[in-house]
Amino acid sequence: MVHDQADSLRRQLEISKHPREAKTISFVSGKGGVGKSNIAVNFSLELCRLGNKVMLIDLDIGMGNVEILLGLHAEKTIVDMLQDNLPIYDIMEVGPNNLSFIAGGSGLANLFSMDEYKMDYFLAQYQSITKEYDYIIFDMGAGATQASIDFVLASDECIVVTTPEPTSITDAYSMIKHIISYNRQVPFYVVLNRADTIKNGLRTVDRFRKVIMQFLDIEIKLLGILPEDKAVSAAVIHQAPFVLGNEKTAITKSIKQLAEKYSNNVVGSTIEANTSFIDRLKDLLRNR
Predict the structure, then answer these.
(1) What is the pTM of this model?
(2) What CATH architecture is 19-286?
(3) At residue 192, what are phi and psi to the nearest 5 degrees?
């Protein structure tokens, strides 16, 4: 009981430090294999390093690998929370740089087709942590279903990860087209991963943005170009985030610049925080 009261007081103190709700960011990709989860993990760690409180939630249920990329093992997952009606605090883990994260787990065929009771339970549990963090980041599964796209639409911002490969660019275009078919006001950022050179990467993104503007009539902002770097595969093999202990590698320097650019709002945000993530998601679910 004393322990529970202490936890409650600590959380109230945290909420008082963050009177506003956390900004929600969805990481998406048109297909798998572009490094989306790895970027989401290391981006989150860098936001923490810059003094932000961050929660990373793995929503790639059944295929999630956030805990593996962090080199950790989660005792409980989001699936356990929904199946056993656990408090969200029971499934939260803490990783490097004091990053909070929730693992995706397995055994639930589709998180986004859960019944109304489970969805209400999820929303109630999620609501309890929204003022404890500066950022809540969703690592979405590759591609999109009718239901999972609601999480993206309800987020404050969407970061699309792609690579220079033509198929990856095409899939990223299709993902953006699908999202804006529901709401053209979603703020988009693009991260180009595995560029052979920064110069070629900028050319690729410039062409991509022009095509998006020409055919979809929306603007997407460039968040960053990340180089091809052997340090990434080495980090994955060793199950350790590449930003930890690899300060001098090209990929680490680039992800640090990317996080600093985002944290300092250099790219500029177009979101209007008139409603919360929860309110937007509830509206979308009601109108589905």
Answers:
(1) 0.90
(2) 3-Layer(aba) Sandwich (3.40)
(3) -95, 120
